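Holo prediction — adenosine-5'-triphosphate.
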Amino acid sequence: MPAVGAGFWYRARSRLEFNMVTPSPEKAGVGPRSADLDDDELALGEPADARDHELEEFRYQVEDMVDDEESSGAAAERPDDGRPRPTVHRIELDEERIDQDAAKVVRRLVRAGYEAYLVGGCVRDLLLGRRPKDFDVCTSARPDDVRRLFRNSRVIGRRFRLVHVLFGGGKVIETATFRRAPEAEDERAATEDLLIRNDNVFGEAHQDARRRDFTINALFYDLGRGEVLDWVGGMPDIERRAVHTIGKPLVRFLEDPVRILRAIKFSAKLDLGITPETYDAIVEARKALARAAKPRLFEEILRLMREGAAHRALFLCWETGVLDVLLPELSTFLAAREEDDDRVWQLLQEIDRRTVERGPLDDVVLWTVLLSEPLREACDGARDRVETAHDFLEGVVDRLNVPRRIAESIRRIVALMPRLESGRGGRSSRTPHYPIAMEVLDIYRAALGDAADGAFDAPEGPNDSAAITASTERRPRRRRRRRRS
Ligand code: ATP
Ligand code: MG
């Protein structure tokens, strides 16, 4: 496998002449995916084979729509009410991939006289030829009106009042009233109480589109007319396969730094480029991530690893310097490693391979594998591996609010590894950490082959056997005071 070196994304970008960037690592032959994807997962632009051919045709349909002046004609049929006009693209999305319950929600709202659309990730995924994970609806109807129309629904949220319309099998169609971004002066005047209301300012469809994060996430699909409404230039970005913020990238990232991780997630999992302006703003705004809500950071990092594109996502984090802010323990390890040491990337590829094959892995497995190489180095030769792992993880736990359950499991697993590896894990098979530790070991073996042998080998420290049988309560719980911010 060719080494994945720092600067790849920038170098690749500067070689491209058009306004698109960041081909994924596997485009350069080092990526985790391609052959293992099924039809639904296959993205446009991957190596051509029979299945791609169909998708290529679809891509040209999209291009036609974007280029076709006629496609905007429908806008003229709408009443001129002084509101910003969307660009309208006539396109019949694949009915078979549209959730019929979501379609029911939209149609009933429209029959009741409201505006209602499919919106966000589902429209984006359908346009990219993927099967959406879930379907969101947005509407001009207020939450209480939606609630009245659907007996099987409930209003949720305090800050953002949304309606969950419930269907069989636990399916939820999230139905949100159009909102607009709060005005700057509203924010300045905000008291805590005002803030709650200001976060939930109802608006119109075009305002709801503009408050969203990326252009590709702000397309509205009018089911009745078979039209995509685009107020933000999302359709051209779908066509050129680019992640681009709505509005000025730096402003949008500073407003909500978690959007940085979202940009990386969409680029990685959908195999899209990131436009130069957006990419540069990620680099510039990355330190703001340290001010974001820690539980959101923790969750977003997991999402980067759960989607079958962990390798690409983490590579982008590293390349942009985001990893220095979120996980300096890993980024310094990567910077200091031998040039030909690709173990971290190989492990992430193995995670992707398993995810594509079997679905998302356990959170503890994901975190343990992500941190395993620097952890292994830290524990190398340590007499007490649990204690050493504890010290190593302290910074990560504080920075990202890692739940105690997960941090504790990682420590135990790291302590167990040398025994499992050498086949001395008999007694430990009764502990709750055993199956997870075995999976981590399995990933090591599958990713590194012979090189995995002895990876965790270390002289048995005095506390290793205790670690195996001890409950998670062995160490007195440290009470951390909640910091008010
Ligand atoms: P996924 O398939 O990963 O769920 P998604 O686009 O549906 O992707 P969600 O997190 O479910 O992502 O959010 C739904 C929509 O809400 C997004 O498509 C986007 O329009 C909007 N959104 C979500 N998070 C933000 C944010 N931080 N800032 C602005 N808009 C956001
Ligand atoms: Mg979603």
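READOUT: The first helix runs from residue 8 to 15.
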